[in-house]
Amino acid sequence: MIRAYVMNAVSLAALRFLSPLRAAGLVARLARVVPAIEEAKLAATIGGLRGGTCLSRSMAIAALSERAEVVIGVPPPEEPNWTAHAWVEVDRVPVLASEVRGAAITRFSVRISSK
Q: What value does the CA radius of gyration of the chain take, rounded to a whole number of Å?
């Protein structure tokens, strides 16, 4: 869990100074030297991770998983308090269904294979 918090902190800091895609690239480079999280532990890791933003947490988790992607979605425009939201999916299936909000508009991988 400590590696998830470290990656979340790095993601959050990178997002403060870089565009999301550049931040994802930086996080991906760091992830090359950090062991991946087993897919069976992804949901527990996401559920236990606190702090940052939905995007920084999603980038951190996706960076620590071989097959996960960050998904960004938006609710219908008529919904009050309209905001984008990010979550993690593996093979287009949300790791935590409760995290999904709205329709996906884009998705991207963060982890660079260490192989």
A: 13
Q: Examine the pLDDT at 62 and tell me if it is beyond 80.
A: yes
Instruction: Give the domain extent around 37.
Output: 2-109
pLDDT at 115 over 50: no
* Placement of tokens 């963060």 in the chain: 110
Virtual torsion, Cα 58, 51, 80, 76, nearest 10 deg: 0
Q: What is the 3-state secondary structure (H, E, C) of 54-112?
A: HHHHHHHHHHCCCCEEEEEEECCCCCCCCCCEEEEEECCEECCHHHCCCEEEEEEECCC
32's tokens: 């090359």
Provide the domain count of the chain.
1
> Which carries the bigger pLDDT value, residue 57 or residue 79?
57
Does residue 86 register a pLDDT over 80? yes
